[in-house]
Amino acid sequence: MFLAFNTYPLLKALDISVRDWSVLPDVASPFVGLKHYGEALADPVFATALRNTALYAIVTVPGQMALGLLVALGLNQISRLRTLLRTLYYLPVVTSWVVVSLIFKFIFAGDAGLANVVLRDRLGVIPDYVSWLTEPVTALFVVMLLGTWKGIGWTMVIFLAGLQGIPRELLEAGAIDGAGRWARFRHITLPLLRPATLFVLVMLLIGAFNVFISVYLLTGGKPLHQTEVLLTYMYQQAFDFLEFSYGAAISYVLAAIVFALSLVQLRVLRRPALS
Amino acid sequence: MLGRLSTVERTLLYAALGVGGLLAVIPLWYMVTVALQPKIFILEAPSSLWPRAITFDNFLKAWSENDFQRYFLNSLVVAIATTVVSTALSAMAAYGFARYRFRGKEFVFGAVLVSLMVPAIMLIIPQFIVAKSLGLLNSLHGLVTVYVAMSFALNTFLLRGFFEELPRELEEAMFVDGGTPLTAFRHVVLPLAQPALATVAVFTFLFSWDEFTWALTSLNRQELRTLPIAIATFQSAHQTEWSLVFAASLIAVVPVILAFVFGQRFFIRGLSSSGLKG
Fold this sequence. Notes:
The complex is a heterodimer of chains A (275) and B (278). With 275 residues, chain A is mostly helical. Helices cover 73% and strands 0% of the residues of chain A. The termini of chain A are far apart. The model of chain A has no long low-confidence stretch (mean pLDDT 83). Chain B is built from 14 helices and no strands. Chain B has helices spanning 7-36, 39-44, 57-64, 68-99, 105-117, 124-133, 140-165, 168-176, 181-192, 194-210, 213-218, 227-237, 242-262, 264-274.
């Protein structure tokens, strides 16, 4: 069963992507080679989706890492209230994607959404109400804000575990040698956090390239495919237009990117911790 | 001494962490506020973060209308069945991987590892075709079958790591006393593995309780919907009924949050050792 639903589909996807897959069981699915990959290269919507996905990864991954590390460093310094604060930061992580997407949809809704009322009427930082989710740029901003906000807690937990694994003696030795707080962070803490950092980076990148539910619920790729990401486009091709082969080709491009990125990171970052 | 902060620094640190924590929960708090108010107040003053009149009508209405209880039950049945079956199967598989040598072991475990790195949604097209040919679309047991397959890899991976750390001597003592591998597994390994099994079970429950994409794809019949699908569909059909949407969402989310808050130690430990991402 496991092989049927995991390993076999991996190969089956490749097979589907090089045919003109027919949804009907009795109709043949002729082999067409790389035709669908060629289509993807020539497809402007695919290019938009790829660009948006890459942008999402470039913004949300460092965002989550920096903020998560910051919170972890802070929490590592305190003892009272630590559990309570950690819980606050972690709550968005355990709330389902569907629910948080709907919350953001409401906050950034049309005219009288919370974001507009606060930013214009209370703070006066924007001159007019913004139609957040129907303008491509602001809609993508909201999607990225949601992705970052939801992921900080997870990143924080991993970094916090890493920080607690750093022997105090090392930091004390650094202090005796006259290293200031920043120097200790830069030369002791950060290198020792490398395994955690590598792990977080790989997981977050995979997650970022798989952004789907938030975009699907917040914009559905609209307007005019401007906010499409790879998986919403794949999903639409496959399950709205029944273009299974084209959808599978998109999945494979995505899989190839994720795989290549993971390999590069493992190569680049797997250097000895203390040099 | 090391890391000792001055009083001023300490106060600033607490203030910063507190403000950050509040920012982190404001969207969730806002959902609670909206769900607690009569609809009219939300339209009048959407920026209020404090409910101006508290009513539980939205919860009662969300619970009793639109077939909500059926969807709740669907989710509950699917999540419990997935958790039981997946935990049991992966415990047995993990034990096999941890203790026995057999032909093709490395290959099969390699397949498990690869599928850990390939996120489920990339495989949704072939999974759909496989599930269709096996008759697993549009049924709750089909949903459970696919969820078990989806959670199997991670669970096996986690439990194998745990089983390998258990000392073999206890099982060997069982064999000396005439026990079979099965009795050793049931009476020695499983009781010792309870914390690990609980972690795996909690993660599996949360995964199947929250899963959206596959349920959306594989279930066409309305009466089979699970909660995430029902809530998303209801929102797109009733664009202005936000208090009902959020009341329904809270009913769906609160069990998860309670489980997290009370099982936190457990949860965090499992999380940092496995790196499962929510």
